[in-house]
TrEMBL record:
GO cellular component: plasma membrane
GO molecular function: C4-dicarboxylate transmembrane transporter activity
InterPro entries: C4_dicarb_anaerob_car (IPR004669), C4_dicarb_anaerob_car-like (IPR018385)
Native source species: Vibrio marinisediminis
Keyword set includes Membrane: yes
Cell location: Cell membrane
PANTHER family in UniProt: ANAEROBIC C4-DICARBOXYLATE TRANSPORTER DCUC-RELATED (PTHR42002)
Family: Belongs to the DcuC/DcuD transporter (TC 2.A.61) family.
Protein name stated in the entry: Anaerobic C4-dicarboxylate transporter DcuC
Length: 455
């Protein structure tokens, strides 16, 4: 239990310093390195098995920082930088203003910005069918949907929360989490994903939409949050009307190439964004009457946006990853598993305990996958001992891991979207908290109603 206590104390300290105004990246990185060093001091292994040890616990801690810089900086970080660069480029050439001008006219009939917020949230949830990565989806929505939401009068914190939360509930039947959950439940994938998980997911999204409407309205009023609905007539548009298509090129590309719509042609999100930048540059080049110098000068805004993203977002992701590894390597998650094993509770109580522990682990580590993968291994054995249906335990855990990630100030999606929106991760978590609680309660009730407790 010492490891769990250390993890709890360090996590509380991280929250304290961030609330006090310390730079989140520095706090998370320092706390993560401290946890890794304490891990070595307690005799535990610091590095995952795929990373070779340097032979010293101090340098092993720094070795993991290097790994995260390579892994997140060159992988997910590059995706974020590309999308941020694309968004900056769209703003610079005036494409975002064209979108706002054109879309604001038909949307002006909807007077309530909170009704627009709900519509945007549902659209964002549907996007999760095409983009499996929560952080990737959040960044994509920030680059495309966010400017339009804020222009239509949705407050900045509420708009960021929409972009941060569509992956809170799993819809995609072929996501890795669902495939593993179906296997551990002993059910066919189509039966598990479509007949069992999907109805619960739809109900949870409906409840979260309603909760987001009232919760954001309450917070905006309480905090007197600036909400400025731009007057269409005041928007200065210098770009042609057809530029309105350009900001949506990544989304179009995702559905065409990442969703396997076109047979024999499949591109990942990185290539899709590069293609979108290249296509937009060609359109801009033609619109500027083939003025290559002006086009290349405009592209500088894209590179500057990428550099700003590395400073403001990617380093936060690296720091959050080091902190999460520190919590896991010191054994805090293993201690939570031990608590679940020794609980000795009944069927419903055991389901609630496992769900609660999964949420707690997801909030602490900022990861949706790691807690679920750890706890799902435990569920079949516990279900067998008590004669329970494994799916009765696993379905709430599956959704709880993603819901918990959405209210974690150190999760990749919250860090990335808050960084792009230039607000605190805690502000995002505050906005997502009540909808997530509503979604979690709905998932638990849906499981009790739709999933038999016993085999």
């Amino acid at each position: 239990m010492l490891e769990l206590l250390i993890g709890l104390v360090v996590t509380i300290a991280v929250g304290y310093f961030i609330v006090k105004g310390y730079k989140p990246a520095g706090v998370l990185l320092s706390a993560g390195i401290l946890l890794l060093i304490l891990t070595g001091a307690l005799g535990h292994t610091i590095l995952p098995s795929k990373i070779a040890s340097t032979g010293n616990m101090l340098t092993d801690s720094l070795e993991y920082v290097k790994f995260m810089l390579q892994n997140r900086g060159g992988g997910l970080g590059m995706q974020i930088m590309l999308l941020c660069g694309f968004a900056a480029y769209m703003t610079h050439i005036g494409a975002n203003n064209v979108v706002v001008k054109q879309f604001s006219k038909p949307l002006s009939v909807i007077k309530s910005p909170y009704a627009l917020l709900v519509a945007a949230y549902i659209v964002a949830c549907l996007m999760s069918l095409a983009v499996s990565s929560a952080t990737g989806l959040g960044v994509l929505l920030m680059a495309t949907l966010f400017p339009m939401m804020t222009a239509m009068g949705i407050s900045r914190p509420a708009a960021v929360a929409v972009c941060a939360s569509p992956a809170a509930i799993i819809l995609a039947p072929t996501s890795g989490d669902v495939v593993i959950a179906a296997e551990k439940s002993g059910m066919a994938l189509d039966v598990f994903a479509v007949q069992t998980v999907l109805p619960v997911s739809i109900a949870a999204i409906a409840v979260m939409s309603v909760a987001a409407y009232f919760w954001n309205k309450y917070l905006d009023k309480k905090e007197n949050t600036p909400m400025v609905r731009i007057d269409v007539s005041e928007i200065e548009v210098k770009a042609p009307a057809y530029y309105s298509v350009l900001p949506f090129l990544p989304i179009i590309g995702v559905f065409l190439f990442n969703g396997r719509t076109l047979p024999g042609l499949e591109l990942d999100i990185y290539t899709i964004v590069v293609l979108s930048i290249f296509t937009a540059a060609l359109v801009d080049y033609a619109s500027k009457r083939f003025d290559g110098k002006a086009t290349l000068e405009d592209l500088e805004s894209c590179y500057e946006g990428m550099a700003d993203a590395f400073k403001g977002v990617v380093m936060l992701l690296v720091a959050a990853g080091v902190f999460a590894q520190g919590l896991m390597s010191i054994g805090a998650i293993d201690n939570l598993l031990h608590l679940a094993e020794t609980a000795g509770a009944g069927g419903i109580a055991l389901m609630l305990i496992l769900t609660g522990l999964t949420v707690a682990a997801a909030i602490a580590t900022g990861s949706g996958n790691a807690p679920f993968y750890a706890f799902v291994e435990l569920a079949p054995a516990l279900a067998a001992k008590m004669g329970l249906n494994p799916a009765f335990l696993i379905i709430p855990m599956l959704q709880a891991s993603n819901l918990g990630r959405t209210i974690s100030p150190v999760s990749g999606v919250v860090v990335a979207t808050s960084g792009m929106g230039k607000i605190s991760p805690f502000e995002v978590v505050k906005r997502t908290s009540v909808p997530v609680i509503g979604g979690l309660i709905t998932v638990i009730i849906g499981t009790l109603v739709l999933v038999p407790m016993y085999v």
